[in-house]
Fold each of these.
Amino acid sequence: MRLDGMTAVITGGTRGLGRAIAESFLREGASVLCAARNPYDIKELADDHPGRLGYQRTDVSDEESVRALVEAAVSRFGRLDILVNNAGVSRDGKIARLSLQDWESTVTTNLTGVFLCTRAAITPMEAQGGGRIINMSSCVSTRTAVGAAAYSASKAAVDMFTRTAALELAPKRITVNALAPGYIDEGMGAQLAANPRAWETYRSRLLAGRLGQPEEVGAAAVFLACADSAYVNGHVLEVNGGLNWAA
């Protein structure tokens, strides 16, 4: 129970990797407030952890919505120890045909949302003596991929934001790190593995020879959230099975 007595806010926490992280945090004893535009189906998860899981409808690109999220976490659970900036979108397309709307929606959600949530979490975390912020990056923040200009650029910016925030918030005893998943058996990763021709190409790039599991990303998030990572700050932790992009 490495997170016993702690409270976490997870944006995009009702499905995909956000939900997997929520499940991992709950198993380790944390109380979790899942923030998203849609609750999807987290009732079963809430039933399994009575009193320790909540939902807050949130638009991470809206300053007032983010402010209300942080206030809801503190009001419901009494504190805010961990923030996971997981909410994100992908509007992939080659630059020549990428619309301004798709570019802006990607950058606004993936980067501005991280900024707004981080900024809002500073005051309650500082007041209680510290906290942990975990930003969700991606394997394509450091690797090129055709059609991923908006997504890759937003995630590369998240990496640098993470390092800068770590520098600025360290005096407040707040650590800031990032997770950069590779091909995970969830969402687009699962769709990739379901295409035999595409999977054969990408499988050769993975030293592990398989997709990662959502709970493996959750385990990495627990590490960055708990006392085991007290001396880790400003780091981007890759969880990608040894991804070799040149293969």
Amino acid sequence: MKFDGSVLALNAGSSSLKFGLFCPAEDGAVLLRGEIEEITTAPRLLVHDAEGGVLADRRWRSGGTPGFGELLEAVLDVVERNPGPQALAAVGHRVVHGGADHGAPARITPALLVELEALTSLDPLHMPHCLAPMRAIASIHPGLPQVACFDTAFHHTMPAVATRIAVPRALAQLGLRRYGFHGLSYDYVAGKLGMLSPALARGRVIVAHLGSGASLCALLGARSIATTMGFSVLDGLVMATRCGSLDPGVILYLGRQGHSFADIETLLYAQSGLLGVSGFSGDMQALLTSSDPRAREAIDLFTYRVATETGALVSALGGLDGLVFTAGIGEHAPAIRAEICARLAWLGLRLDEAANAAGLACISAPDSKIEVRVIATDEEAMIARLAQSVLQRRRAR
């Protein structure tokens, strides 16, 4: 059954809200994109149309920070003044954690909200930011359909052995397991790869989602079989301000030295990673342009960890046919792509330096045994697509 109307995709973070308006009737064409930055301090709403023209640029003064409801009303006002060919029909939300039970997007109901509230204990830093827009939209537009799109859902295809943590079974039954994240990004990239290189998409591929948050995902036939993030978004690769994989003994040591639980949490989420190693920045571009030797140490650790974790996923896949770079660093830092690929030369991977520098779609050399690609991710487009699919199924019943 045909879906009538546009879909607003909301991607809420701790300090920002990204969004996009899409028209499913026009093959998911984007009508506008925007972001609210510095939500908790001095919010700024900036919205662009599909051609990049500014539709709105509004600032709230610091000290009088508005609530989430007021901010979303401002977003909806822009959307309703620029609806495109069809009126707003639904809102899709990125939900960081879906737990063990939510392997597909779902229509948001009071019962689902209760379930998601219960998952806050698994991810207390992100889930409140995911739930706040749902409540605000329900208050502003009670009849507007909303859909939850889970970042963990894509990884529900992982085999049981890839999800287990070696802790007592009683703890596993309480939810201690590997979940994996960045699923909306991986889902989008897998679909895009299927259009660009169908044969490769059917094979063994590792996607490197390298941004301020970073992870790798091993795809076999476009399905996730392993990923570097585990129980939380702290696991795996070195990130902008997160530590990545860490010996649990470090946490025990810090506790014995008198650090509080809150101090340790802040240390691992906000003061580690590239920022912690360099001592001055978690921004990869700033590190690449710096002459400070600590910047080089941070970059080396980042590329080393990506390469060693890639090796582990090659083992999980039983070989490798393709490597795909995506997200901020993966899409826009050719020097980082080159360093990672150099560390993976043992796989028979050969980079086309000119293609890499130019940011072409395929950057592997003709004689490379591994096909290397760069694909821009679009989580908001994926959210809109999944929301549309949920509502279409309901209408078809």
Amino acid sequence: MTGRRAAVPPSPAPRRRRRAAETRAGYAFLTPWLLGFFALTAGPMLASLYLAFTDYNLFAAPSWVGLENFRLLFDDPRFIQSAKVTLTYAVLGTPIKLAAALAVAMLLNTAHQGKGFYRSVFYAPSLIGASVSIAIVWKAMFIDNGIVDRLGQSVGLEAGGWVGNPDMTMPMFILLTVWQFGAPMVIFLAGLKQVPAELYEAASVDGAGPVRKFFSITLPMLSPVLFFNLLLETIHSFQIFASAFIISGGTGGPAGSTLFYTLYLYIRGFQDFRMGYASAMAWVLVVVVGLITIVFFRTSKSWVHYSGEGK
């Protein structure tokens, strides 16, 4: 078999060079994000982790105290109060907000005229967010002789406003968070658009009413969206600060009724200059939110249903 030569496989060197060039280009485009991540996120987080084990007041070098800050946390009655206030807010406010968002989303899903207008109107408060201006307006509405107080007096309620009443401050904050249900509403609306109409038609043929359809079709089909909103809104509820600071004047309100966790963290760090103590509080919050997230994901297997499962 003269004249024939074995085929020579192509050299992998050009392919490796091309992949290396693509990798370098990718990292070049990622460089601004990487610089921001390490300089503004990862770096400060590591610094705060170190400060959590020190006594640091911003004016002198930090001194190592080990676990002392964490021990002091659980002997601090104001820390316990801030944890209770924040947990109450998260447990009560989040479900009510999601229920309102889902109810409005279902109404918008069945509406035929003016859908876009109403969707924009309901979403607008979420665009504003928990800003300082909204907190100032909310405080003006609920203070003594504010518009809410005057309306209450007109129907025979006691005067005095909600801001200075320890029993009414939590309902006031829950109303504020429920009012800003636009973001989860839009997500619920997108999920409702994905529910096949054939399921409702088949249920109607079987004689199912609106309540049965809601619990047997709507909720199971929306469970992934509900899980996403529940997780996101729960995390957000632990981060409340601006409205609590403005409405309470940075003090925690009457009898500590508005002493939210992040507000107390700010007080310890930037009013008392206990930065080590505040850093310990921050890391406790990180751990708690992380544990809650893990619990949500572990328990979601029993009630979140994705299309295509079991096939």
Amino acid sequence: MTSTADARRTVLVVDDTPDNLSLMSGLLKDTYRVRVANGGERALAIARSDPQPDLILLDVMMPVMDGYEVCRQLKADPGSKDIPVVFLTARTDQVDEQFGLELGAVDYITKPISPPIVIARVRNHLQLKQANDVLRNHNAFLEEEVERRTRDVRAIRDAAIVAMASLAETRDNETGNHIRRTQHYVGALAKAMAALPKYQDVLEPETVDLLYRSAALHDIGKVGIPDSILLKPGRLTEEEFAVMKSHTVVGFEALKSAERSLHNTDMSFLRYAKEIALTHHERWDGTGYPQGLAGEAIPLSGRIMTVADVYDALISERVYKPAFPHEVALQEIAGGRGTQFDPDVVDAFLTVADQMREISRSFAD
């Protein structure tokens, strides 16, 4: 008996002989919707039209374009490559059969045909295609769902960064534009360094993006510094500066606590945020704070952030200093190469110096 599902399935029969087309149409028409093509070009046009056939029965020996070439083009086209092709041919040589299957056909039936065998094979291949379609659609749904959830996680991550950075802004007499500038400095520096063979495997695009976003939290620990020190309109005493330096550890511990609360959730951006918060005042020669780390013992994220932060401090006005011109800031950064700063980061900075100046102008206070 003909099922409703079978009636909706379309079988395309391709043969240059009218009698063969009539034979196959008569055999299949009571069970399936049958379309016919008497040549390769016509077959390709039908296969690429909407609705597409669910199965193609394809003769090999045809003028102009033989069945092998039709199959080759069908499988090369993303729009038709999933339509199962069954060769239906008078060629009985094993080499021909092997060649047809290697082109991507799912079956090879030789003439003269056995009607029960043809009907059974058509039914089996259509059932298999239906199962494959269901699986393919399910996989596509899963991929879309993973992509949607990934977007949600990234949105939550970005919202968390903005919220925490905004909190730091409310306590600091530095403006929010300082945060934006340093973010973009870090992004530009990381991209420049990613082009170097030494850092290609370390600074992948996803890592560069995370560094850019995490840079906004470099001074999050300042929320734990008393206003009398944080907002003091002048230079700090030695004792006050010792308290101010603790913002690195305060920020690190706050972010570490946040990371702990997330349990097994993938929030890898907090790894870089922690590194940056803790180490962006370390120096290449080991005389920085809070741990006195030296050289490559300082995480790369912290070494990049240090240069970005110092450059912005140099070109910005403070109660204890005027804003330095861009050229003077460049000289200061270059002068700290190998002492205050990682030489590789300084070299990268100098290659994107013009970009740094444009960033500072775009986000001027």
